[in-house]
Each structure stands twice: as structure tokens, then as C-alpha cells.
Design brief:
This protein is an alpha+beta fold. It has helices at 18-31, 61-71, 75-82, and strands at residues 4-10, 39-46, 52-58, 97-99.
């Protein structure tokens, strides 16, 4: 299996704060992601322009597809998405994925 990484851009919805994003992310992590063996790692980062990236590494492309399908049924995922501005999001557009070539520990 070859790990796949997704860099999912996040822009906050109007009237939502970073605190709202962090609370929704924590709930998403504990109630959904932590129970998905196909997710190897997840990191939420803030860019200098105030936008965010959810960096998610999956065990394989098949695991990614399975987890994304399950997300559509997850209340914790719906809560996470509710703090995002999804105006420009096209659910039919393919996600940019990156294949891991090497992984190094610090």
C-alpha cells in the first residue's frame, strides 16, 4: 500500500472563529477520525493569510475513498464542515492527492 496525502484548504464561514474551527476539529478527530484505521495522520495548520489546511495522510487511495464516503454520514464531520465557507467547494471535483515517497521522523 502506498500512503496518500490530501491538503484540504479551509476558509472559515462568516461569523465563525478559529476557536470554532478548533472545537469542531477536535470533535471530528475524536468521534470520527480516531475510529478510521485508514487514516494514518491528520494535522490542521494555519497559513499567514488566515486560511487553513487540513493535512490528512491515508494508508492508501482505497482507504481515502472509503473514509470520504463514511464522512458523508458522520454528524461530527457535518459539524466540522459547518464552520467552513464552502461557497467555492465543488464536491464533484477530484481532490488533489500526493503520493508519499519518503517519510522521516524528527
Amino acid at each position: 500500500m502506498t500512503p496518500i496525502t490530501v491538503l484540504a484548504p479551509i476558509k472559515l464561514a462568516p461569523n465563525k472563529s478559529e476557536a470554532d474551527l478548533l472545537a469542531a476539529s477536535a470533535k471530528f478527530q475524536s468521534e470520527f477520525v480516531a475510529h478510521e484505521p485508514g487514516v494514518l495522520r491528520r494535522e490542521l495548520v494555519r497559513a499567514q493569510d488566515g486560511t487553513y489546511l487540513d493535512i490528512v495522510q491515508f494508508r492508501s487511495e482505497a482507504d481515502m475513498a472509503e473514509v470520504i464516503e463514511k464522512e458523508m454520514q458522520s454528524p461530527a464531520c457535518a459539524d466540522f464542515f459547518s464552520v467552513m465557507d464552502l461557497t467555492d467547494f465543488d464536491p464533484e471535483a477530484p481532490m488533489d492527492t500526493y503520493v508519499s515517497l519518503e517519510t522521516h521522523a524528527a
